[in-house]
Amino acid sequence: MSLRLIANWKLNGSIQFNDQWAEDFFKNFSSLNSESIGIAPAFIYIDHIRKLIGDSGINIGVQNICEEESGARTGEISASMIKDLGCKFSLIGHSERRIFFHESNKTISKKLNLANNNSVMPILCIGESAVENERNDTYDILKFQVEEALKDLFEQSALIIAYEPVWAIGSGKIPNPEEINSVHKMIKDVVQSRFPKIDLKSVLYGGSVNSENASSLFVQEHIDGALVGGASLDGKEFAQIVNIFNEIK
Ligand code: PGA
Question: Which ligand 1 atom minimizes the distance to the CA of 228?
Answer without folding.
Answer: 3
